[in-house]
Design brief:
2 domains; Trna Endonuclease, Chain: A, domain 1; Alpha-Beta Plaits; alpha+beta; 6-stranded mixed β-sheet; 5-stranded mixed β-sheet; SseB family protein; SseB_N
């Protein structure tokens, strides 16, 4: 079973659980999806195959190429897209997602209004504010927040060295939690803040607040965070593959012309 199969099963097993439903849609946004096309793509222009099901428009998408091939049963054009990019492309078009139809336990129809909702949720940007941090201590958040952050930061490879979650107090008496990134790439700060915001949104915590800070490893705050904070290690960026000389890779012998 795929991650989306498992998330779908959890959602179906607890239809009243908003968190399970949110987590399915989060996985959908973070996954690569394969969409059946009506014709071959031309450059960056694609033409989704649209079907009418129960008087609503849908495009066929699958979470595995093999599942698309199994459903179609013939050679057909398709496009692989990040889930978030797909829903943003379809938002406002009145088109839903016919997901994994007939080929997986996660088969379902996601109507156009759910596609629009997901696109709007993903487009939300965190607010920028200024406040002076006074004290940090051990975090106290639901496990769903920790799990969501762990999942989000696992796909942010190479954007920062690590991050710490801690309870925070500010001048003026306000309190909350802070996610502090250590040695983040300067051009990655917005993406990391957005990822943290999404993790909180899809955790199902209502009115949750989490600030995002960026510091260097040499900052004294980093040493204190190491004592009281919950640490997340971000994976290193994958190294680009260096092509080997023809015939040097035993798994790819040279082909005779």
């Amino acid at each position: 079973m795929t991650d989306l199969d498992l998330a779908h099963a959890a959602m179906e097993a607890a239809p009243e659980d908003d968190t399970a439903r949110l987590q399915f849609y989060e996985r959908l946004a973070d996954s690569e999806l394969f969409m059946l096309l009506g014709s071959e793509a031309e450059g960056d222009q694609i033409n989704p195959e649209i079907f009418e099901i129960e008087n609503q428009k849908f495009t066929l998408v699958f979470d595995r190429e093999e599942r698309l091939a199994q459903f179609v049963g013939r050679v057909a054009p398709y496009a692989g897209l990040p889930g978030r990019g797909l829903v943003q492309m379809l938002a406002g078009q009145g088109v839903g997602l016919a997901f994994n139809l007939e080929v997986a336990p996660s088969a379902m129809l996601i109507p156009a209004d759910a596609v629009d909702w997901l696109a709007q949720t993903l487009a939300h940007s965190p607010d920028q504010t200024e406040a002076r941090l006074q004290e940090i201590s051990a975090p106290n958040v639901p496990q769903s927040v920790v799990t969501g952050l762990d999942r989000k930061l696992a796909i942010a490879a190479g954007l920062a060295r690590s991050a710490y979650l801690a309870a925070a107090s500010y001048e003026g008496g306000s309190q909350g939690h802070a996610l502090v990134f250590i040695d983040a790439l300067p051009d990655a700060e917005q993406a990391l803040a957005h990822a943290a915001s999404e993790a909180l949104t899809f955790s199902g915590i209502e009115a949750g607040v989490m600030d995002v800070l960026f510091i260097r490893a040499a900052d004294p705050l980093a040493a204190h965070l190491a004592k009281v904070g919950l640490r997340f290690d971000l994976p290193e960026a994958p190294k680009p593959e260096v092509p080997s000389a023809p015939g040097m890779n035993p798994a790819k012998p040279p082909k005779l012309r």
